[in-house]
Design brief:
Radius of gyration: 18 Å
Shape: elongated
Structural class: mainly beta
Number of domains: 1
Number of helices: 1
Helix content: under 10%
Strand order of the largest sheet: 2-1-3
Order of helices and strands: EEHEEE
Number of strands: 5
Protein backbone atom coordinates (compact mmCIF):
# COMPACT_ATOMS: atom_id res chain seq x y z
CA UNK A 1 0.00 0.00 0.00
CA UNK A 2 1.39 3.38 -0.97
CA UNK A 3 2.04 5.95 1.72
CA UNK A 4 -0.16 9.01 1.91
CA UNK A 5 1.18 12.45 1.26
CA UNK A 6 -0.12 15.47 3.09
CA UNK A 7 -0.85 18.30 0.70
CA UNK A 8 -2.32 20.59 3.33
CA UNK A 9 -0.13 23.58 4.03
CA UNK A 10 0.23 25.09 7.46
CA UNK A 11 0.72 28.74 8.36
CA UNK A 12 4.35 29.79 8.60
CA UNK A 13 4.12 31.47 12.01
CA UNK A 14 2.42 31.36 15.40
CA UNK A 15 1.58 34.89 16.55
CA UNK A 16 1.17 35.98 20.17
CA UNK A 17 -0.59 39.17 21.22
CA UNK A 18 -1.40 40.81 24.53
CA UNK A 19 -5.07 41.66 24.16
CA UNK A 20 -8.10 43.26 25.76
CA UNK A 21 -11.66 43.15 24.46
CA UNK A 22 -12.84 46.44 22.97
CA UNK A 23 -15.91 46.35 25.22
CA UNK A 24 -13.80 45.63 28.34
CA UNK A 25 -10.65 47.69 27.76
CA UNK A 26 -10.18 48.38 31.50
CA UNK A 27 -9.54 44.66 32.17
CA UNK A 28 -6.09 43.12 32.43
CA UNK A 29 -4.74 41.88 29.09
CA UNK A 30 -4.66 38.20 28.17
CA UNK A 31 -2.35 36.37 25.77
CA UNK A 32 -3.96 35.34 22.47
CA UNK A 33 -2.21 32.88 20.16
CA UNK A 34 -3.00 31.99 16.53
CA UNK A 35 -1.35 30.56 13.42
CA UNK A 36 -1.16 32.73 10.29
CA UNK A 37 1.20 33.62 7.45
CA UNK A 38 1.30 37.35 8.26
CA UNK A 39 0.66 39.68 11.19
CA UNK A 40 -2.20 41.24 9.23
CA UNK A 41 -3.88 37.82 8.82
CA UNK A 42 -3.32 37.06 12.52
CA UNK A 43 -4.87 40.36 13.63
CA UNK A 44 -7.89 39.71 11.39
CA UNK A 45 -8.70 36.60 13.46
CA UNK A 46 -9.43 38.81 16.51
CA UNK A 47 -11.57 41.69 15.14
CA UNK A 48 -13.06 42.79 18.48
CA UNK A 49 -9.80 42.93 20.40
CA UNK A 50 -7.18 45.62 21.04
CA UNK A 51 -3.93 43.79 20.21
CA UNK A 52 -0.32 44.48 21.15
CA UNK A 53 2.26 42.37 19.31
CA UNK A 54 4.15 40.02 21.66
CA UNK A 55 5.89 37.34 19.55
CA UNK A 56 6.28 35.72 16.13
CA UNK A 57 7.30 32.04 16.26
CA UNK A 58 8.13 29.85 13.24
CA UNK A 59 5.76 26.87 13.07
CA UNK A 60 8.21 24.56 11.31
CA UNK A 61 9.80 23.59 14.62
CA UNK A 62 10.40 19.83 14.72
CA UNK A 63 9.62 19.64 18.46
CA UNK A 64 6.35 20.93 19.89
CA UNK A 65 4.44 19.99 23.04
CA UNK A 66 1.44 21.82 24.48
CA UNK A 67 -0.64 21.17 27.59
CA UNK A 68 -3.13 23.00 29.81
CA UNK A 69 -3.27 23.56 33.54
CA UNK A 70 -7.01 23.79 34.24
CA UNK A 71 -6.50 24.79 37.89
CA UNK A 72 -4.52 27.88 36.88
CA UNK A 73 -6.27 28.44 33.51
CA UNK A 74 -2.88 28.34 31.79
CA UNK A 75 -1.79 27.00 28.40
CA UNK A 76 1.83 25.80 28.34
CA UNK A 77 3.74 25.24 25.12
CA UNK A 78 7.32 24.13 24.44
CA UNK A 79 8.81 24.46 20.97
CA UNK A 80 12.33 23.57 19.99
CA UNK A 81 14.61 23.04 17.09
CA UNK A 82 17.62 20.97 16.25
CA UNK A 83 20.89 22.36 17.51
CA UNK A 84 23.92 21.42 15.46
CA UNK A 85 27.24 21.45 17.27
CA UNK A 86 30.69 21.35 15.72
CA UNK A 87 32.33 17.94 16.18
CA UNK A 88 34.96 19.37 18.54
CA UNK A 89 32.23 20.65 20.90
CA UNK A 90 30.53 17.25 21.32
CA UNK A 91 31.11 14.95 24.29
CA UNK A 92 30.71 11.68 22.35
Amino acid sequence: MAGTQHTQTYPKFTWLFLATREALSECSPVVLRCDADSEEDARAIFPEWHLTFAAKIRTESPYSFTWTDKNRATLWSIMGGEISLPLEARND
